[in-house]
Amino acid sequence: MQIITRCAAILMLLLGALRSEGQVIRFGVIADIQYADADTRGTRLYRYSVQKLKTAVADLNKQKLPFLINLGDVVDRNPADFAPVLEALRKFRRPVYNTTGNHDYHGITSNDSLYRLLDMPAEYYAFKKGNWRFIMLNTNEVAAYANVKGTPREQELREMMEKIKERKGRNGAEYNGGISSAQMNWLQGQLEDAQQKGELVLVLSHHPLGCATGLTALNDQEIVALLAKYSSVKALISGHHHAGAFCMVGKLPCIVLEGMVETDENSYGTIALHPDKLVITGSGRMTSRTVQF
């Protein structure tokens, strides 16, 4: 009888593991809301972003998604503009995971106050859903606009800019940022832990790590070199480049989501993570695509 009971228990564990491996994780995505109480400039419809966000949140709520990821640039230029955007984001009924964008730092003198405003648990962080680990990088950590003057990050910024100059890179613009050596060490620890536990990893950031010449993170090459060492990393997802893009960075799929501010339609979507593929279902201007791992 004990043998039968043990076999039944083992069978249940195996079935549970199979269900976990086949589990599909679905969530919403938004990038570059970039609201401002300002007139339209070119294709940037600043004032319309809040209404577009409300429409997106209402639709994503109807889909009963378990969480939403916002990839930064909540506002364009004025800290006072955060209030209506955050009010709209809070209408989403489940957790919202935010990271910052370069525009979010305009007029901000305390980075910590910005992270608190966006309900971020830390400057950079990770969370788990099913067998997936989501790594939320902060590619604004080392940047001219991110209050680095007089801190060790100021020296790291100088070193990054020198490396870009040496390799004749085009991403040394004032609106790009990078991650510090401390964040790089933290990232490596996350990747090691995920690899040992057999987890799949999705890396998210505001600045692209490829696909967008002149708009990538300042130390994109160093970040990608680290990520490429781990087979658990399945895809890179970012914003910042409003036009959107897709390419392979080595063996890693690199997806840049279209910006909400840069359209008279809308731009948001859902992502379904399967063990062997990622499926984006875009609304409005956001591109739908399937990426095989």
UniProtKB/TrEMBL annotation:
* Descriptive protein name: Metallophosphoesterase
Q: What region holds the Calcineurin-like phosphoesterase domain? A: 25-243
What span is annotated as the signal peptide, if there is one?
Answer: none
Question: What organism is recorded for this protein?
Answer: Chitinophaga pollutisoli
